Each structure stands twice: as C-alpha cells, then as structure tokens.
Amino acid sequence: MPMLTLYYKERDIMVRERSSATYRVTSFYVSKLTTFIPISLTANTIFFTGVYFISRLSIDADKFFIGLATFYSLITVSITFMLLVGSAIKSIEFGFVAAPIVLTIQILFGGLFANPKTITPVLRWIRWVNPVQYAFSSFAQNELRSMEFVCQAGVQCYENGTQVIESYGLGRFTIWQNILLLLMLATADIILGYSLLRWTAKPRGILTPTPLDMAFIPQAETVLQWEKLTYEVATMVNKSAAYRVILNEINGEVRAGETIAIIGSSGAGKTTLLNALSGRIIGGSLTGRVLYHGAQRHPSSFRRLTAYVQQGDIMHPLLTVEETLDYASKLRLPNSLHTAKDKRDRVAKIIKQLRLESVRKSQIGDMKVRGVSGGERKRVSIGTELLTNPSLIFLDEPMSGLDSNSSQLVVELVKQIVNERRIAALMTIHQPSARIFNLFDKVILLS
Fold first, then answer.
1. Phi/psi zone of residue 402: left (φ > 0), alpha (ψ -120 to 50 degrees), beta?
2. Count of domains in the chain?
3. What is the share, in percent, of the chain residues with pLDDT greater than 70?
4. Which range of residues forms the domain containing residue 138?
C-alpha cells in the first residue's frame, strides 16, 4: 500500500509533464519497475527468512531457496499488479478500495481456505489467474512431497505428503511450472498496466481543426483567440438523456504582455474555459474555433509552447526548491539546445524573478514534512512551468489556499514576468480583493 500511494503521487506528476510533452510514459513505468521490485525483494528477504524458520519448515538448503524463489515470484506479481491498479484507476481512493478486494479474493481462492476441487464451476476460472494459488501450490509441494506419515491402525489418514497435495488439488503443476506461471502473470500485468497507463494518461481535448479556422485571422500581437466556444456535457433528467451547456458561444482573445483573469462564482465554468483554451478538457462536446498565433493548434507543439499551472501543487516533498527546478530543467529542456550551464543559469534566473533566494535550499514539504510556505510552493510550481519560456501561461486558481498578501505577491510576480518576456497569462480567480483585481489588464466575467 505505501508503494501504491507513492505511485499515485508520482503518476500525477508524470501526467502533468506528459501533457506538456516533456515526459514519456515508458520512462516513468520502467523507472517504477526497476526501483519498486528490487527494494521490495530486499526488504521481504528478511521477512521470509524469519517466518520460514519460525514456522519450523524444512531446514534443507535446496528447499529454502526454492521457497525463496517462489516468494520472490509472488512478490513480483504483487508489485506488478499494484502498478496495474494504479495505471487503470485514476483515483487513489478507488485504487485503495479495489486492491484489497482483489487481494481478499485471491487469498480465499488460493487453496488454503477453499479446496480448489470443491469450488463451483462458475468460479473455477479464478484459479487460472490467481497468483496466490500458484505460490501456495509451489510451497506445499516443496514442503510435503518428501514427507511420510505414520497412521494408527483403524484410523483413516494420509500416508504421505503427495496424498495431501492431491486431495487439495495442488498438484496440477510442478514447482517450477508454478514459478514460471507466476512470472508469466507478472509479465501480463506489466504489459496490461503499461497499455492502460498510456491510455489513461493520454492528453486529450485539442479542438479538431476546421476549414473555417483559416478565415479567422487575429491581429499580429494576439497570442490566443477564440470564437463561439461552446461546451456541453451529457446529463440525465427524469431518466432521459439531456445536454447541459457549460460554456455558451464565448469569444475573446489574449495579447502579448496581458495578464487576464477569468472571474466567476463556483460552477460558473472558469476552470472549464481555462481547460478548453489550454487543450486539456476531457469528455463532453466542445465546439468553436481557437487559434494560437493565428494558426491551428497542433496538440504536441501547443503544449510545448504553452504552460499550465494546476491548482494543486504536485511536487516531490523531499526535494529542495533549487533541486525541484533543476530536475524540471533537465527533464524539460533538451540537451541538443541547452547546455548544462544554460540550464543552471535559467534556474537561477527563475529563482531570482520569483523571489525564492532565501528558500532555495529548503525542502518543498507536505503535510508530513515541514517545508516552504504555501505562497512559496505556488511560486515554485509556477517556476517549473516558466523554465521552457512559454509564450502563454495558464494558471488554475493560483491563489487557492493563500492569504491576501501571498496572493497579491503571486499575481504581481506573474504580471512582472509577463511584461518582461512579452508573453501572456490567463488565470482563474474566485473572489479577488480590490488590490488584486486592479492588477489585471482585462477580466472575463462568467455567470
């Protein structure tokens, strides 16, 4: 479970980086396999050794190492299954519900609590995909095959371990066949988990270009322009399908050097509009025209040339501010265009622009680890997006959870960087104060 928690946290970071076309799913998935499996096997070796001898199992070296090989195979399947759950289910809450349910079913049908021969035919297929059953069969054969029992006269009992194995239906496969089947299940989990992760983490939401886009040409300094943007979602009304309009024919534009706020009450569609313009909206029906520098948006290049700061600051809590920005620069800036010195200089410049010099060596922190303040964490999150020199930056509720002074500082610094770089910024805000409201060049009001 701790590994599943860590996987979900780092998965969110990968999804964010992939949406910016700066991180591959393959790199993330392989890194999890090559770190989780060795660490888990090393820790569980101590556990297995203690339990093996405490249980007074056979002290023969060959049986011990065969049992250890079986245990290693079972642990490998468990880890790959955990990665499969984390890849298939986006929500950590549902993931933590699904994993124990499947584990309970595997234990119940593993061969100890229910005799495989007595299981109803409808559920007998579970045996073929149950790693616990293969491991239990391997352990039972390893321990019982060579055993002989003495039966009292007139008492019906098992004469040897082979009879016990056959009576419980655990002799379908040999020990090494069971281990091979466990590794095959692990391989299947890896392939399926990788495929599902590529699908669930797939960036979506770019509008399909139409021929009419070519006739919709903005002015020279316009970074982003949209016309008749409409978004509808399917709902159920009185048990019948209906469509609810979230955005209704919205027009607007963002020019270089402008900082624009999208303001509205809860449920007005602020984040929906921001996601629609940034190409990150999922589901529903999105129509209208959105042009980037007067041309059609290409999904991968648009995400590389723009930046998106999420409402939640997804960063590793144990890294310092400088390390976070340094790693982001190494992941996002290609070596073919930027030297190591260029990356360090860019990180130093971002730290200075966002006034993070005093906390550059401080950890990011989270609920368990003490770190920088909420305002500083938000500025680090913005800094990781500014490293690529985007021409347009989207910010979703950047002042959420911050006090008035921290919120004002965030907006002031964003506006200052926008003016210096001649880029554009578009952010959603719920209830800005009068001082913050006056900082914006334009506002978009949604009701």
1. beta
2. 2
3. 91
4. 2-200
